[in-house]
Amino acid sequence: MASSSRFALFFLVALFSLSALLCRSPVAADEQEDEADPGLVMNFYKDSCPQAEEIIREQARLLYKRHKNTAFSWIRNIFHDCAVQSCDASLLLDSTRRELSEKETDRSFGMRNFRYLEDIKEAVERECPGVVSCADILVLSAREGVVSLGGPFIPLKTGRRDGRKSRAEILEQYLPDHNESMSVVLERFAAIGIDTPGVVALLGAHSVGRTHCVKLVHRLYPEVDPNLNPDHVPHMLHKCPDPIPDPKAVQYVRNDRGTPMIFDNNYYRNILDNKGLLIVDHQLATDKRTKPFVKKMAKSNDFFFKEFSRAFTILSENNPLTGNHRLLQITFLHRMYALTLTMIPFFSTGTKGEIRKQCNMANKLH
Ligand code: HEM
Ligand SMILES: *[C@@H]1O[C@H](CO)[C@@H](O)[C@H](O)[C@H]1NC(C)=O
């Protein structure tokens, strides 16, 4: 290292320690630790962007009015982002020249409406540039999606930061497939702290939205799966007339024919009635570990909502990247920091990830 840059680094470290001293308030030791990395907390943006959650709510409401099915996407997003390693918005990243990203693989088939999430991000950026992470926007929009469709309001913590990488090849080790055995499904969720009633409740998200024929034809051709309710089969055959669906034609079946736009416990009555579309849906209603909870949720929407909210919260807190955003918001010597933003990763050890400027791309490093 040239001596001038060594001096610069020394100067920065000195500056940094000085301001750390100046900013220290007389609080208990454990609170000071919190200040270094508060982790996830309620209303994380209360000082840095007090209106953040309200902007997200408002935008989600407006977007839902115009494009109802974007609410399904927001709900599915939280599963595909948070269950895969970390709630770090890696789901939203585009592929790079070197790396195929998560959203572009077969397991993510049918994921859509990412541009509306980008709209929310833009609205937040207009008020508070560079402050609110895509990971938090993804999680909070999923919450708004649930509310828009008539589900429960779930209080959630914030403070997630954005990852810089998305790797398609890790998807399969985290996300169960549509025909996975219940043992594998329960195992995968248990690994992130979600128990059996929690899994049963989360799959209740299949009370809304759609499933493309590519995920269903193996239950219809060459023979109809005898486990399917015969009353439901003609409808499925009508919607999926070809054993090998034309990949360009958008052919799908609604997950819940009865109340497709309402987030409710009708899903459980459907699967008990052998009208579950996916193999995993059907198995949820037949496996002896899950069936008792399916029955309970079919009877009580309150019990479904309570368990869903609990499991959704655990999912939303899976292994987040956290750190002190406030590092960048100290007004004292703010300009100095602005000059040295790119140096911060060297000496702010507790902070992981970044606040992406655009949700589909990691920030450029200089
Ligand atoms: C064992 C676990 C799961 C499996 C195997 C699974 C699989 C699938 C599949 C194959 C589709 C159809 C996609 C398409 O054809 O467009 C789908 C849709 C959906 N999934 Fe799941 N899922 C699981 C768990 C979850 C969880 C935990 C949530 C959210 C909490 C969720 C939310 C949704 C939603 C909302 C849709 C409808 C999406 C739309 O209409 O665009 N799923 N899921
Ligand atoms: C599950 O379905 C996929 C196709 O989507 C297929 O390749 C795989 O073999 C199936 N697995 C099982 C266990 O049936």
Protein described:
The structure is a single chain. The protein is mainly alpha-helical. It folds into two domains: 38-174 and 323-366, Orthogonal Bundle (Peroxidase, domain 1); 176-316, Peroxidase, domain 2 (Orthogonal Bundle). It has 16 helices and four strands. The chain has helices spanning 3-23, 29-36, 52-66, 70-82, 114-127, 134-148, 171-174, 182-190, 196-202, 233-239, 266-272, 279-286, 291-299, 301-316, 334-339, 344-347; strands at 41-42, 157-158, 210-212, 252-254. α4 (70-82) crosses α6 (134-148). The longest helix is centred in the N-terminal third of the chain and has 21 residues, at 3-23. Residues 21-34, 327-332 and 345-349 have low confidence and may be disordered. Pfam families: peroxidase.
The CATH architecture of the largest domain is: Orthogonal Bundle
With helices defined by DSSP (H or I, 4 residues minimum), what is the helix count? 16
Distance between the termini: 18 Å
Low-confidence stretches: 21-34, 327-332, 345-349
Apparent shape: globular
Characterize the quaternary organization of these chains: single chain
Bound molecules: protoporphyrin IX containing FE, 2-acetamido-2-deoxy-beta-D-glucopyranose
Strand order of the largest sheet: 1-2
Helix content: 40-55%
CATH class of the largest domain: Mainly Alpha
